[in-house]
Structure formats: structure tokens, C-alpha cells
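Entry 14. Structure prediction run on the chain below.
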Amino acid sequence: MDLHSIEEYLRPTTMAEVGDWQSDRAWLAGGTWLFTEAQLDLKKLVDITGLGWTSVEVTEAGLTIAATCVLRELLSVNYPTTWTGVEALYSAIRELASFKIHNVATVGGNLCLAIPAGTFAPAMVLLDATYHLLSLDGTTRSLRAMDFQTGVKQTQLHPGELLHKIYITKENLEGWRVDYRRICVATAGLAIALVTSARHRERNRTKLVISAAFACPLLLEFDHIPTPGELASGLVGREFLTDSLASAEYRHQITQVLMERSLAAVTAN
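Output returned:
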């Protein structure tokens, strides 16, 4: 969609070139959501792809992903074979639309849009990623992935602040068996329930992240293999979404099914 309200386009090479932040501005990277609907309140787009951030870095300590990293770039990296947790990232890409989107959309854009059905947020929470945020004045701060999204299209970002990069330690990638499941009412639709789980046999740790059914991802952790009853207890008192796609009751029921199936997949011999 053409954005007829836009009067100015800026592609800075440094944050100092951005100037003061105004409410009629928006950050631009892949733009796969930004250009899907009219943005009548916007007059200026600030393209961050000129900042020159390295898309993906693999070190002995872990994995760093720039917010401007295009999805397909994650698929071409040569990860250590012991980093089995990267399967959560692969799944997040596979479940996000078509290859056309994979060639344009960015990791940071998917995370900052913060819709309940977003595919990357649950994967990052599962991998206990750390987000590094960058302000216009050059100051930085860090947040755990589980604390970043606070509601439907709501995050901890301050006006003018950017998600700069995502960091995942080797310990959160190595030796984890991962499963990723989502269900939609239409093949190419938004998920009404999404469950991703991970099991580390040597450490006897189990993690499940539930999203799409809630306003933001929910993390459940165990130092054993949880029973169906323990899984059900983790959902007690939670506020499930109700909208045109599904009722809260249905989301609750289908989430329970996905949790049990996902857990079975990561604990099977």
C-alpha cells in the first residue's frame, strides 16, 4: 500500500543524524507490516538499514542477531552442530508467511510489532534471549525477552528508542531439544494458539512458552518433566484472548492440547 501521508524519508548512517523524535515518525526496516495499511498519523519514515549493523554474529559465547537482520539471513548461517536450540528460530521463520516475506521482513520488526500471534517472540523467550535497546543519544539498556512485550502491540520501548540487537548465550542454544506448534483457523491466518517447548535432558530442565492465546508470551519452567496436571495448572487464572478468530474457552482448550503434544515431542526417546 502507498503511504500518501509521508512527506519525508530519512536513511541515516548514524543515530546522530536522526535528530529529535516526534510522534509523526516511524522506524523503517523491512516494512512488511508498515506498508499493509494506511498510516495516517505518520509524516516521516526513518530507515535504519543504513546504520550498518552486522546481521548475524556467531562466537564461542553465543549468537548475536541485529534487529535489521532479514529472516532469510538466519537460514544461511553455519551454526555449531551442538546448537540445537536454533531450531526454534528456524520454526519461527517457517511459520511466518511465505518466502517473499522471508526475503524482506526483519527479526526486529516482527518482535517490535508485538502482536500476540507473532512467531519470533515465543522463540526468543524460549531461548532466554537478551534484547539490547538503543536511544537517540547513544545510551543503551538491556531487557530479557520475556519482559519486552507487555501487551497487544505494546513493548518496553520508549519513544525514539530502537531494538538494536538480540543476544542468545551458547548455554541457551546448546543441547536443547525444541518443538514448535501453532494452530490457525485458516492456513495462512494468524495463530489462535502457539506453543513452543524445549527440553535439556542432561540438566533435567523443561520450558514451554505459550503465545497467540495471550496478549504476550507466557513462560513455564520446570526442573523435571511436567505432568498434564502441572501443565493445566500453569494456565489457571490466565486471561485468554477473545476475538473474531476464537473464544477464550476455545483458545484455552486448544492450548492445553498443543502443550501436551509439544511436551511429548521433546521428551520422546
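Helices lie at 71-75, 87-94, 99-102, 107-113, 120-126, 145-148, 228-233, 248-267.
Filed with the rest of this week's runs.
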